[in-house]
Amino acid sequence: MRANIWCNLPEHLVERILTRLPVACFFRFRSVCKGWYNLIHSSTFLQAYSESPAQEPWFLMFTDDHYRDGSTFDPSLNKWHHIPLPSLPQKETFFPAAAAGGLVCFGCYADGWKTFVVCNPLTKACRQLPPMLNPPFRLYTVGMVVDRDTKSYKVLVAGNCEIYEVYDSAINCWKKTCILPPGFYRWHHGILCNGFLYSRRFQFDGLVAYDIQQGVWSQIQAPMPHAFDYHALVECQGRIFTVGGLLKNDITKRVCILELERTRLEWIEVDTMPSILCEEFLKDGASFSCTGYSDLVMLYITGGFRDRLVLLYDLSKKLWRRLPRCSLPDERMREGLLDGISFEPRLDAVV
């Protein structure tokens, strides 16, 4: 009866209401009627959806070395969803490399990093990008930026031999850009902040920044604290944070959150994991990994068993919380969480 009442409401009113729902609820309610099921293809619904507030990031986590199985954590519902993973080409292994505006970019190493695929994990739409002009054999960083107005996006890839190329979906091709500064750190996800793509640099223990509009690299010499084990860069409300651990005898003793102080170019400790929680999280001397987007960071033990603690940290509220156990069956969680990437879930993101 209630479903019939909803279905008889004016279409524009239904669309406006549904755009305000958490993404997971929208998919569940699509089963109400055929009209609601087809909303994801409706231009008026997607236009209304594009004007709705941004959702909290989701965490797409993988549980096998081939990146074919995994689960997604939804902070707004405090729940894991086993959504089908993107239908990537089967012959090779694709790694999550970057995310922006509801899209995730996967890269594949086969005779160099020449193959990249961009997909929307919610709609399952995928696009394999044309081969890079000069594929690198070593990948340093990958970044991504989405233009919400034009629905176009750019993928920025930096690799060895000063290789740096940008893919532009508007013209469907790669372009080689300016020479890279030397001394990139090992591979990690780049972050976008105030029009710059930031990546880690090891030679001067600082950062490199790429101005997306000007196409110019710059170096930021901002030394990390002594014995700090870096794990990830995260952007939150126009500020840059790093998450890592303080080492003693090569063992992590504390998990810390540092913020880049722009004026003095110093990393300032702004929070630390409570000691009791840290002891439980790092028991048996385990090392951890993390992935973050916007103001949320997930911390997990790489390859830890199913019962290992998984945490979520809110940068804006300075809150730590334990996450529920992953909902995958036991036989698919024997190796725990191996790798992952965080992204903003968006139904209107176009590949």
Distance between the termini: 38 Å
Task: Figure out the total of helices.
Answer: 6
Structural class: mainly beta
The rounded Rg comes to 21 Å
Tally of discrete structural domains:
2
Strand tally, please?
25
CATH topology annotation of the largest domain = Neuraminidase
Strand order of the largest sheet: 11-10-9-8-12
Show unreliable segments.
none
Give helix % range.
Answer: 10-25%
CATH class of the largest domain: Mainly Beta
Largest sheet: 5 strands, mixed
- Principal-axis shape equals globular
**Amount of beta strand:** 35-45%
CATH architecture of the largest domain: 6 Propeller
According to CATH, the homologous superfamily of the largest domain is: Kelch-type beta propeller
Average pLDDT taken over every residue: 80
